[in-house]
């Protein structure tokens, strides 16, 4: 075995140690919360309050129930769902009381929300470059943000607050930001109201991603409105090709195929009108609204955006990252500092990639028989498959930025979950301990069903921008010319710290059959689309690392340095959360997504 091969194997063993540390890092891709209000929410629609969200109280076998059933039957409505409920209620006069009460409420809320339902148009979704309405994919109704308003009262507030303001004032947004690991030192999390969504009986939305709406969008937040009872209709959130799932906002389960199934309603209760259930998740995460078995599922969707707290515009020089004093926004958590310590250890290890590129003996048997030797130089680096997907404008926001340049502090701040942990750990190790001996890059990749049979996925200098109309089907030559690729996997020599399958690999993302089975949330997007990527961590040769580390150690400690000049803060005044406008239909996108 040659020296180069031994060095490569040693680096791979060290990569496994990094994987062990990172495997112990828990980063949430979704979270839940509860907003407690003092009164039931109020929905303002068409300049008046409608409907009442106070939970309806219908006592079993009471005169109210009997009168309501009789009145409903007298209407002789032609609406299929109402007729079914009315017949069922009439036949249940001798059945369990809780079941009679439950069906009475299901029928009552259809009337209570009737005007709202009639005014709400069919919800759309994005599919490729088109915005469509198809109940086979998404069966729901939707109102844009500028056509409704929800107000609530919370403890400590002297007056009613807009729902978005209440999320901020109650601390719910802060809780969500903490749980999702979004940097609270650098960013404020803002909720921008987007839509009111209603799923009736049979309503659903197939697996999709949310439509990207700007580089500052990080996710979606859903608030379930009480007083609209439903069964089923869970929101299923999944990552890693379904390796991990969260099921939230689920109504009670109805199991009519089992004997005496109605007994599950013996202790049946309506949702508490003073507790609003909340689900929040990153926008690149796959999610699906499962079928609503009964009732009405009513949610308000918010776009979660990040807003910079101060006018920090610090970039870490690629030549010597230690020359910049790290700002507070890179304050390390225990998980980041532990990983950073491992990177520092590797930089001090003379056996770890002593030279780079490594010289590998690739002489085949036929060449050896002829007395020939073939040595190949391989630039080795550690590769971390990204656990999240990113869009063209989230990381490479400037024309000069690309996969060829090390990530700056501002760019690392835009990473999510474990990707952010790796990025911050490298910058922490590079700037404070090693003088820039280790650097990190973000490499976008694009592939299709048969790239593994050829040279592997394609490498791109930047995330793609849809300035041209991409054909639904593309050949390898078309991909190379359209996306200005810089090579493919067979041209690089990564040591994968994680298997690529453990990264976030959404169905058909980056495939030749663009969005053949994938959907966007509310509409198509002509601005962004998602592609996969990986983090590339490069180390200087051992001799150079030693010099950089000595230089870093010879500098004064941070406590003895002259204080850096203060930068003027640019903290935006607290304003009422904006309401997002629905995008025009027919826009182009190459991924999938919408608000459930």
N/C terminus separation: 56 Å
Give the helix proportion (percent range). Answer: 10-25%
Q: Largest sheet, if any?
A: 6 strands, antiparallel
Uncertain ranges: 57-65, 257-262, 312-332, 504-518, 564-575, 583-593
User: Helices and strands: which structural class?
Assistant: alpha+beta
Mean pLDDT across all residues, rounded?
A: 76
Number of strands: 27
| Strand line-up across the major sheet | 1-16-12-19-10-7
**Share of β-strand residues:** 15-25%
Oligomeric form of this entry?
single chain
Which overall shape is indicated by the principal axes computed on the Cα atoms? elongated
**Over all CA atoms, what is the radius of gyration?**
28 Å
Number of helices: 13
What tags apply to this protein structure?
single chain, 596 residues, alpha+beta, six-stranded antiparallel sheet
Task: Give structural notes.
The protein is an alpha+beta fold and about 600 residues long. The protein is built from 13 helices and 27 strands. The strands form seven sheets. Strands 1-16-12-19-10-7 form a six-stranded antiparallel β-sheet. A six-stranded mixed β-sheet has the order 25-24-23-27-22-26. Strands 6-11-17-14-15 form a five-stranded antiparallel β-sheet, with no helix packed on it. The chain starts with a helix and ends in a 42-residue tail after the last helix. Mean pLDDT is about 75; it is low at about 55-65, about 255-260, about 310-330, about 505-520, about 565-575 and about 585-595.
């Amino acid at each position: 075995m040659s020296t180069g091969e031994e060095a490569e194997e040693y680096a791979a063993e060290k990569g496994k140690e990094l994987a062990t540390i990172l495997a112990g890092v828990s980063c949430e891709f979704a979270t839940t919360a509860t907003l407690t209000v003092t009164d039931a929410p109020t929905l303002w629609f068409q300049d008046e309050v409608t409907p009442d969200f106070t939970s309806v109280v219908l006592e079993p076998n009471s005169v109210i129930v009997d009168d309501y059933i009789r009145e409903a039957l007298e209407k002789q409505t032609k609406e299929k769902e109402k007729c079914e409920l009315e017949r069922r209620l009439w036949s249940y006069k001798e059945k369990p009381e809780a079941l009679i009460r439950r069906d009475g409420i299901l029928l009552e809320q259809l009337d209570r929300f009737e005007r709202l339902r009639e005014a709400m148009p069919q919800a759309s979704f994005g599919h490729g470059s088109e915005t469509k309405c198809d109940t086979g994919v998404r069966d729901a109704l939707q109102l844009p943000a500028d056509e409704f308003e929800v107000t609530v009262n919370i403890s400590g507030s002297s007056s009613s607050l807009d729902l978005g303001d209440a999320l901020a004032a109650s601390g719910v947004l802060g809780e969500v930001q903490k749980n999702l690991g979004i940097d609270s030192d650098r960013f404020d999390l803002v909720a921008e109201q987007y839509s009111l969504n209603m799923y009736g009986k049979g309503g659903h939305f197939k697996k999709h991603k949310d439509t990207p709406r700007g580089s500052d969008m990080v996710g979606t937040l859903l608030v379930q409105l009480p007083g609209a009872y439903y069964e089923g209709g869970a929101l299923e959130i999944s990552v890693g090709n379904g390796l991990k799932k969260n099921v939230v906002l689920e109504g009670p389960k109805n199991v009519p195929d089992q004997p005496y199934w109605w007994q599950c309603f013996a202790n049946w209760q309506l949702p508490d009108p003073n507790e609003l259930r909340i689900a929040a998740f990153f926008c690149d995460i796959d999610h699906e609204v499962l079928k609503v078995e009964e009732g009405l599922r009513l949610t308000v969707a918010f776009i979660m955006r990040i807003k910079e707290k101060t006018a920090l515009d610090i970039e870490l020089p690629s030549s010597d990252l230690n020359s910049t004093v790290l700002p507070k926004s890179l304050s390390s958590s225990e998980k980041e500092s532990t990983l950073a310590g491992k990177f520092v250890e590797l930089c001090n290890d003379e056996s770890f990639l002593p030279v780079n590129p490594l010289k590998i003996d690739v002489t085949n048997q036929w060449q050896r028989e002829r007395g020939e030797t073939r040595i190949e130089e391989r630039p080795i680096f550690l590769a971390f498959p990204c656990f999240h997907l990113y869009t063209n404008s989230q990381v490479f926001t400037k024309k000069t930025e690309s996969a060829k340049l090390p990530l700056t502090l501002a760019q690392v701040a835009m990473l999510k979950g474990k990707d952010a942990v790796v990025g911050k750990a490298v910058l922490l190790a590079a700037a404070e301990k090693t003088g820039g001996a280790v650097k990190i890059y973000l490499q976008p990749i694009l592939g299709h069903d048969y790239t593994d049979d050829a040279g592997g996925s394609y490498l791109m200098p930047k995330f793609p921008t849809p300035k041209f109309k991409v054909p639904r089907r593309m050949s390898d030559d078309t991909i190379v010319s359209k996306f200005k690729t810089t090579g493919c996997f067979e041209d690089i020599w990564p040591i994968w710290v994680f298997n690529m399958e453990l990264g976030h690999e959404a169905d058909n993302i980056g495939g030749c059959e663009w969005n053949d089975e994938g959907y966007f949330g509310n509409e198509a997007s002509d601005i962004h689309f998602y592609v996969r990527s990986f983090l590339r961590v490069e180390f200087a040769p051992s001799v150079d690392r030693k010099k950089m580390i000595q230089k870093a150690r010879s500098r004064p400690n941070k406590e003895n340095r002259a204080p850096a000049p203060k930068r003027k803060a640019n903290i935006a005044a607290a304003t009422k959360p904006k309401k997002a406008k629905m995008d025009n239909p027919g826009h182009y996108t190459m991924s999938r997504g919408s608000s459930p």
